[in-house]
C-alpha cells in the first residue's frame, strides 16, 4: 500500500515538473508559418527614372524658297541666253534656226498647234515649245523647266528691274523684258500661283513676217 502511494506521488511530481518546464520563459516554441513576401524579389519600389526624351527627327524637306543668290544667278543666265535667242536645255535659237532643224535632231514634235501668229511645236520630253512662222523660221522658244516654277515677280524685278510692258492672257499675267535689240524675254505668271509657269524668248520681227526664212 505504501508502494502504491509512493508511485502516485512520483507520477504527480513528474507531471508538475513537466508543466513547470513548459511555462518557463525562453522555452522553444514551434516556429510560426513563414509569410509569403508581398512582392517578388527584385521588384523596384522606388519611382522609375524618367524616360529620356526621344531626339526630334529632322523636319521633312519642304518646298523652301530658293535663296536670293541662286535666283539672281539663274535669272542672269536666263538673260544671257535670251540675248542669243535661246533658253536653257536647247541649242536652237529664235531668228536663226528652222523648225526642220529641230525635227532632224529631236524628231517629230509631240503636238503642233496653231496659235497667235504661227504654229507651235511642243516637245514634252524637253519641256520646250517652238513657235515658227510659215517660212519655218523659229520666232518664239518657250521653256517649261520646273526650276522656273519657284520664281516670283519681286525676285525677277530685283535682278532684271521693271518690265518694259505687261500684258494679260486670260488669268495669266505676262511680264516683258527687253533682252536685246532683237529679243524679248517674257515671264508668264498665272494669278492662281503667283509664280512663273513658263518663259518665252521672242523675236517680234520674225513673228510679224510670216513668210520670213
UniProtKB/TrEMBL annotation:
<dbReference type="Pfam" id="PF14172">
    <property type="entry name" value="DUF4309"/>
</dbReference>
<dbReference type="InterPro" id="IPR025453">
    <property type="entry name" value="DUF4309"/>
</dbReference>
<feature type="compositionally biased region" description="Low complexity">
    <location>
        <begin position="23"/>
        <end position="49"/>
    </location>
</feature>
<keyword id="KW-0732">Signal</keyword>
<protein>
    <recommendedName>
        <fullName>DUF4309 domain-containing protein</fullName>
    </recommendedName>
</protein>
<feature type="signal peptide">
    <location>
        <begin position="1"/>
        <end position="27"/>
    </location>
</feature>
<feature type="compositionally biased region" description="Low complexity">
    <location>
        <begin position="59"/>
        <end position="70"/>
    </location>
</feature>
<feature type="region of interest" description="Disordered">
    <location>
        <begin position="23"/>
        <end position="70"/>
    </location>
</feature>
Amino acid at each position: 500500500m505504501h508502494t502504491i502511494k509512493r508511485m502516485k506521488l512520483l507520477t504527480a511530481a513528474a507531471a508538475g515538473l513537466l508543466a513547470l518546464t513548459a511555462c518557463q520563459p525562453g522555452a522553444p516554441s514551434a516556429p510560426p508559418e513563414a509569410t509569403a513576401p508581398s512582392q517578388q524579389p527584385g521588384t523596384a519600389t522606388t519611382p522609375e527614372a524618367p524616360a529620356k526624351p526621344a531626339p526630334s527627327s529632322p523636319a521633312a524637306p519642304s518646298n523652301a524658297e530658293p535663296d536670293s543668290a541662286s535666283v539672281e544667278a539663274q535669272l542672269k543666265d536666263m538673260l544671257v541666253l535670251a540675248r542669243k535667242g535661246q533658253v536653257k536645255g536647247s541649242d536652237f535659237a529664235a531668228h536663226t534656226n528652222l523648225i526642220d532643224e529641230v525635227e532632224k535632231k529631236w524628231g517629230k514634235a509631240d503636238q503642233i498647234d496653231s496659235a497667235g501668229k504661227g504654229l507651235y511645236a511642243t516637245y514634252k520630253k524637253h519641256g520646250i515649245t517652238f513657235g515658227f512662222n510659215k517660212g519655218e523660221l523659229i520666232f518664239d522658244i518657250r521653256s517649261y523647266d520646273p526650276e522656273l516654277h519657284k520664281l516670283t515677280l519681286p525676285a525677277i524685278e530685283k535682278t532684271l528691274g521693271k518690265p518694259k510692258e505687261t500684258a494679260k492672257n486670260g488669268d495669266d499675267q505676262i511680264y516683258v523684258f527687253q533682252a536685246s535689240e532683237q529679243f524679248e524675254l517674257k515671264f508668264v505668271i498665272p494669278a492662281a500661283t503667283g509664280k512663273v509657269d513658263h518663259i518665252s524668248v521672242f523675236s517680234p520681227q520674225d513673228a510679224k513676217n510670216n513668210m520670213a526664212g
